[in-house]
Design goal:
With 88 residues, the protein is mostly helical. Helix content is 66%, strand content 0%. The protein is built from three helices and no strands. The protein is elongated and about 75 Å long.
Length: 88
């Protein structure tokens, strides 16, 4: 655990960590219960889906800007109706 050149080995570290654990010098780690773990996983999935949706929305927005910029306002109601009709 200590970075001393030539002195650090995994075997010594294991013995040192075991000794610290036996005398209660290492704090216990928090392991959440299954419900909390599942909620965390669902939160991570939701974040991933939202980011993915935002990425695709920005990509479509960029394409529409390059194609329709001279004809229509990209943020207008008609443009969103056009996007909806494309995906139907």
């Amino acid at each position: 655990m200590k970075a001393i050149p030539g002195q650090k080995t995994d075997k010594k570290d294991v013995h040192w960590i075991a000794k610290l654990t036996r005398i209660g010098m290492l704090p216990r780690s928090f392991v959440p219960n299954e419900t909390i773990q599942e909620l965390r996983e669902l939160t991570r999935q939701r974040k991933h889906y939202v980011e993915s949706c935002n990425r695709e929305t920005n990509r479509i927005h960029k394409i529409l800007q390059s194609v329709l910029a001279t004809y229509l306002p990209v943020d207008g109601h008609y443009t969103f109706s056009l996007i909806e009709s494309i995906f139907r």
